[in-house]
């Protein structure tokens, strides 16, 4: 994980944010291009890192893995043009790669697609919706019978070097600034000097600034929310 984070970071950045979709919202019988076309403006995942999600659809670099959704159903008849650029791709990995480039233009993106889904057999908790099939795919409506336990689910996960980390790092810096080390003698019992603490604070402030790109449009919204 540490080496992957280093690969995704440059220009002084050191931290990545984690995103995931468990399960990946793929409908039974739908192809991967059909599924991703319905998320053209917002990727189908949720932020796992303790950051306040911003309305910023950009990142600097990312590594994305999709498991359990590889094979596609026929998307067009012979002789008919593809329904979209995603449908023109030859493989599921190419579909995901093109989708990422469309959603995050200019970002360095790597995409990997694995056929094996994530197993959810006992003792995995069965907290899934009754709209999921045994293989973790979405149904259009609840079944009329008692649904069987979900045995596996498709999963989409990502690590991003993203501007959303600015909020986390800036908040951490502000919280640490409020500490008064002089009143906490045990704070430096491990041998940390006050000067080293100040240097670490400055490095944290500088690190937060490395993630400023893409936040200019949201700065006013942040200040309004804080008021």
TrEMBL record:
Source species, domain of life: Eukaryota
CC annotations in GO: mitochondrion
Gene Ontology BP, a term: mitochondrion organization
Protein name in the entry: MSTO1 protein
Species for this entry: Trogon melanurus
Gene that encodes it: Msto1_0
